[in-house]
Write a structure and sequence with these properties.
single chain; alpha/beta; 9-stranded mixed sheet; globular
Length: 282
């Protein structure tokens, strides 16, 4: 495995102001020269959650390793958190996608099959680049190249979506928007359009932190817009399940529903394969 951490601000020659994060850690498969072929791989950008107050370690490398084992090259975004707010987070996610597009040939990434997976507030940030890739802050910096920011597939994991009362995870919206933009402008179920990327959504009915209605609202909006989408709602499960095993808990969870929820990984991988995400031999 090759591991590299990229300073996105340095790469794009953008000066940091109050930002301290904006780093992308990339993990790629080596080219095995004894095979006599070159392999080009799909890529998965991992965006952990944390209410825009932290970046969860549990939803970072363990998730990346699951997709790495399935043949993807992977990267994990370390993005800005409170008290720094909009547009820092969307800019950093946008830079991550543009970096992967620009460097795809050099890194043996299939430039037409770069997906992203986001958890909780990271799912909201995923939604921002999947639905709002031409956000004013991104257009101001990158112009027409913003079209390359949209992932080729989006995997929403118990994602923060709506700012509506009774459904919203208000802390996430407060930390993301600050005083710079209105919550309702980043309530993603209101911003879905037909050009959104194919989307896989999973959540649990009993999530008491980010109500399952967030996922239901997103799926409904995608369906109405004619976007290819698949949704799985598990009967039981708490918030922050990540990869649903002992890697992300002090010990192996004993609750039967945790093992059942772990099926989201295989289901998501199947969804991606259906949409053309596979290793190519050149």
């Amino acid at each position: 495995m090759t591991i590299e951490t990229v300073d996105l601000y340095k790469y794009f020659k953008i000066q940091r102001k109050e930002e301290k994060r904006g780093y992308l850690t990339r993990m790629s498969h080596p080219q095995l020269t004894e095979l006599g072929v070159t392999k080009e791989r799909p890529h998965m950008l991992v965006i952990p959650g944390g209410a825009y107050a932290m970046v969860s370690q549990r939803e970072a490398e363990p998730v990346a390793m699951s997709f790495y084992a399935a043949g993807f090259d992977v990267s994990v975004l370390d993005y800005e958190v409170a008290p720094v707010s909009y547009p820092a987070q969307i800019m950093q996610a946008g830079m991550a996608m543009l970096y992967l597009r620009r460097e795809a040939k050099k890194l043996y990434i299939d430039a037409e099959h770069i997906a992203a997976v986001g958890f909780s507030a990271g799912g909201h940030l995923l939604g921002c680049i999947s639905l709002l890739w031409d956000d004013p802050a991104l257009v101001s910096e990158f112009g027409e190249e913003c079209e390359k920011i949209r992932p080729d597939a989006s995997i929403y994991s118990y994602a923060v979506i709506s700012s509506e009362k009774g459904v919203s995870h208000e802390a996430s919206f407060q930390n993301f928007c600050g005083s710079a933009v209105k919550f309702e402008n980043y309530s993603l179920e209101k911003r879905v359009r037909s050009s959104a990327s194919p989307s896989f959504i999973w959540a649990t009915t009993t999530d008491d932190a980010v109500p399952v209605e967030n996922s239901l609202l997103l799926y409904s909006a995608l369906r109405k817009a004619g976007v290819k989408a698949e949704m799985h709602i598990f009967e039981e499960g708490w918030h922050g399940l990540s990869v649903c095993d002992g890697e992300v808990y002090p010990e192996e969870p004993k609750e039967p529903f945790v093992k059942h929820c772990k099926n989201w990984i295989g289901l998501a991988e199947d969804f991606l394969r259906i949409h053309g995400f596979k290793v190519k031999t050149l």
